[in-house]
Design a protein that fits this description.
The protein is α+β, with helices and mostly antiparallel strands. It contains 2 helices and 5 strands; from the N terminus they run βαβββαβ. A 5-stranded antiparallel β-sheet has the order 2-3-4-1-5, covered by helices on one side.
């Protein structure tokens, strides 16, 4: 069996989020344009939806515009092979967030 982790993110992003960052985030959520995002081997990291195969519950990825900017909530099943790409994406989001404190967690499932 493959190692599977649960990734949860919950954070706010400013209304002034640069268009390139917004387009990349929407691409990772499975929305918007797919041309030119992420390179040849890249695929959306936050796009799975529906019943989770291993961790129970539901897989989600939602980005909504609110009164104070953008709100992002993600719950995904991820494999260690995706960690480098996820680290880059979460680091980018962390640098842009207006949320204070923890923005998510990664938990191993047997």
């Amino acid at each position: 069996m493959a190692d599977i982790y649960e990734l949860q993110l919950s954070l706010d992003l400013p209304e002034s989020l640069p268009a390139d960052d917004l387009a990349l985030l929407r691409w990772h959520l499975g929305e918007g344009e797919t041309e030119g995002q992420g390179g040849d081997d890249a695929y959306p990291l936050l796009a799975d939806r529906g019943a989770a195969a291993r961790i129970g519950g539901v897989l989600v990825g939602e980005l909504c515009r609110g009164a104070r900017g953008w709100a992002l909530t993600v719950r995904q099943e991820v494999h260690p092979d995706e960690f480098d790409d996820l680290r880059s994406l979460v680091g980018r989001l962390g640098a842009l967030t207006s949320s204070i404190g923890v923005i998510g967690h990664l938990r191993f499932y047997l």
